[in-house]
Design goal:
about 70% helix, Four Helix Bundle (Hemerythrin (Met), subunit A), mainly alpha, Arc Repressor Mutant, subunit A, 2 domains, 3 strands, 3-stranded antiparallel beta sheet
């Protein structure tokens, strides 16, 4: 998630073992877990590569899938969220406000994933929460690579979503999430300006 290994780069199990001062077994186990999350891929002749950066087609597929799933989680979360859960979500949002381009976008992206994952978990649908957790990993790899500063727009959109959740209004929460996802993808789509989906 930190981009210490560039997208598409070869991952040397030997080098990682030396760097971390561990045997190859835990390295292989960790890479196997990362492969299950789609963050690394097995190379043809053994070894692993970091997953390549999102292209336009996969970016659009990701947008469509998140638009199908995340508004549903917001709707369900609005019906189920407790006061203590709401306070925890507000704390995550507050931490995001304190992150600037100077402090590094990596931490903002981690908190943003935590924010979205928390709402998904609060929805009570474990399968959707697990699926979204994997999708967010891909989205944040994209963000870390192309967008190195936190946007006030994203924070403001989160505030609207929190307000809907705090009054337990599922329709408002669903609409707020839908708008947030659409606007987020519009911001990131500037990278693909001039490209066409195949």
């Amino acid at each position: 998630m930190s981009q210490a290994i560039a997208p598409g780069a070869k991952i040397s199990i030997d080098n990682l073992g030396r760097e971390l001062d561990v045997s190859q077994t835990p390295i292989r186990e960790a890479l196997s877990r990362l492969e299950a999350q789609g963050l690394v891929v097995k190379a043809h002749r053994g070894g692993y590569n970091a997953t390549a950066q999102l292209d336009l087609e996969r970016f659009d597929n990701l947008r469509e899938l998140r638009m199908l799933l995340e508004p549903v989680t917001a709707h369900k979360a609005a019906l189920r969220i407790t006061e203590s859960q709401l306070n925890e979500l507000k704390l995550i949002a507050q931490k995001m406000r304190s992150k600037t381009a100077r402090s590094g976008y990596g931490e903002f992206a981690r908190l943003d994933q935590q924010f979205h994952d928390f709402i998904a978990q609060t929805s009570g649908n474990v399968l959707i929460a697990e699926t979204l957790s994997k999708l967010h990993s891909h989205m944040h790899l994209f963000r870390l690579f192309h967008h190195q500063q936190a946007t006030s727009e994203s924070i403001a959109e989160h505030d609207v979503l929190i307000e809907a959740l705090s009054v337990h209004d599922p329709e408002r929460a669903e609409a707020a999430m839908r708008i947030h996802i659409e606007r987020a993808f519009q911001r990131f789509s500037l990278f693909f300006a001039g490209e066409a989906i195949k």
